[in-house]
# Entry
Amino acid sequence: MRSLYLTVLLAMLVTLSVSLAVFVAISDRVTKQYIHPVFEAMDELELESARNAWEASGISGLAAYVERLNHHFGTAHYILNAQGVDLVSGQNRADLLPSHETAFRGWTKRGYLVTHRSSDGLYWLVAVDPRQPGGWSFSPYYGLVVGVTGLLCCLAAVFVVLPIRRVTAVVERFGHGDLSVRANMKRKDEIGALARSFDAMAERMETLVMSERRLLQDISHELRSPLTRLKLAIRLTRTAADPNVALDRVQRETDRITTLVSEIVEMTRMEGDPHAHKMEPLSLGQVMQEAVEDCGVEAQLYRGCGIRVDGRLTGEVSGNRELLRRAVENVLRNAIHYSPERGSVDVRLAENQHGATITIRDYGPGVPSELLLQVFEPFFRVEEARDGDSGGIGLGLSIAKRAVRLHQGTIRAQNAFPGLQVEIALPTVQPASEQQREDQAGAGSL
# Structure
């Protein structure tokens, strides 16, 4: 923090120093080019008036004129001849004259000295102000500079350093494990943007960490039961009269563990880098047709039910074919699982200029309304039993949700009375050829 204060202070001092140097340079240039010529013209006029007084009235006239000059300007004026002799007092004041210049204006040991020679070189006007500038004559200006610098440093501390310290403290607390801490800064400048970026990052990190913790807890819970049963089946295999029955049990539990691991890997892969998935234009209608055909066989074989499709999709989406097909299949399989025997699953397809909507409905028991927001959470199942005998492992809809989000879409569930209805909305990319056909049709109708 000290270094930042020092940097701000040095920056201000350098700025003030450069500004002072520039001001002095500009002032000196203006003085030499504009002010000095004006004063030299005045000196020439005074010297000409003194010369006229000397030539018209002699010493008395010149002395009276010099006295008036001294009275008006508060300095000592002398009119000298070419040799430096005072025409009024007769004293030799050649030491006041410059050696090579015809005019001089500046500070000397005698005080502030002004000399000006007539154009013919016969006379000199000399003015001497014996007052010397004191060592502390500029102290008020020094104090003003120091005060302004101190005030600017205080303002910098309040508006720059202190907010940075606050963000640093928040970052340190977050680094020490307080994931809920936020900067909550409303500034509109770069520091405010930094704080808001950190808040967004912290929010995302907290969500990910909490999600990972819940996922680990759910995984440990899900693995505990099949592993326990697997150990028991292995033990029974060693002593059972019919080892094949025990081996079948081992096979079933092994398949469940394999399925669980596969689903977890799939979900973790989708939660990774979104750019790792290759996105390309896809025909949404073809993806739906493949998913319905694959799931239709399973529905007929295991539940004796069918899948009824209403509508068609002609648009395209930018996405990953495997992820998108997997999302639709997971929703369909969930609907098939909860459909009554010999029942049906309804699929309604619709699209407009903004996107496509896929609605999948079963005629099963539905979901309690207070649990509708949880059906897309990992390992969630409506049944209280979590041994997997009554259904899957609770990752199908969670994987579907992640896949849909990767495609910039939304997914939601609601009760249809009877049954559960899941709606998937995806943004579509209108093919150029389709757009051209629409334009041509519209032009023909006109």
Summary: The domain at 2-132 is CATH 3.30.450.170 (Beta-Lactamase). The helical segments are 2-73, 139-175, 190-239, 243-271, 284-303, 321-338, 396-406, 432-445. Residues 384-390, 431-446 have pLDDT under 50 and may be disordered. DSSP finds eight helices and eleven strands in the chain.
